[in-house]
């Protein structure tokens, strides 16, 4: 279903706000992203709530630590039964492999499905100037995303998180089976907020995104269901 390819970011601070949004949007068949604010405010019970309503969860906590610590976090994510979680590629191949192997082992032990594991490349709030002047990476931004996507693939991850601007290059280099999850997507009716590298849902799908992530244009809309339906329609225009 096209609607499953829309990941709604539940970037809200309370369980009740998240619950209300899930109750409104779950009938559309969308996937839900639980990020740092909500997860650290309310904990795993948010994931359990979404699962209890038949929803799928992308746990967006961007693991980045020594391999042993990331392995432990990956086991916990796998035990929760999340559909997808992510790891920072900049932590290196050993760290990514540790997370992947731990998640697979835990899924086998608990009889749950193995989560999709995605590598975080360059955050969508970062542009070329920030990458060079603040972070100290002189490389062209798109090339750095491709380099890190290559490391994620080498580590055995299922795909990457990347901005809409890099979708086409990643798809051309790594083929149709490498998942691309794309934040920084803003429907025609919304502003770009703090995202630097943005694109519409239709453009993102046309370029080859498997999933798109949309938060505030839906969750802060006067009518979140109507906004989500509009995003799905825009996505379908790109299929």
Summarize the structure.
The chain is an alpha/beta fold and 239 residues long. It is built from eleven helices and eight strands. It is globular and about 40 Å long.
Give your account of this protein's structure.
With 239 residues, the chain is an alpha/beta fold. The protein has one domain (2-236): Aldolase class I (TIM Barrel, Alpha-Beta Barrel), CATH 3.20.20.70. The protein has 11 helices and 8 strands. It has helices at residues 15-25, 36-42, 45-52, 67-79, 93-110, 128-133, 141-155, 167-174, 201-207, 216-219, 224-236; strands spanning 6-9, 31-35, 57-63, 84-88, 116-120, 159-161, 179-182, 211-214. An 8-stranded parallel β-barrel has the order 1-2-3-4-5-6-7-8, surrounded by 8 helices. Helix 5 (93-110) crosses helix 7 (141-155), helix 7 (141-155) crosses helix 8 (167-174) and helix 9 (201-207) packs parallel to helix 11. The longest helix is centred in the middle third of the chain and has 18 residues, at 93-110. It is globular, with a radius of gyration of 17 Å.
Estimated helix fraction: 40-55%
Weakly predicted, low-confidence segments: none
* Reported CATH architecture: Alpha-Beta Barrel
Oligomeric status of the shown chains? Answer: single chain
SSE pattern, N- to C-terminal:
EHEHHEHEHEHHEHEHEHH
Count of discrete alpha- or pi-helical segments spanning 4 or more residues: 11
What is the CATH first-level class name?
Alpha Beta
CA-based gyration radius: 17 Å
CATH overall fold name: TIM Barrel
CATH superfamily placement: Aldolase class I
Helix/strand-derived category reads alpha/beta
Strand content: 15-25%
Roughly how many Å apart are the termini?
12 Å
Mean pLDDT value: 93
Number-wise, the strands total 8
Largest sheet: 8 strands, parallel, barrel
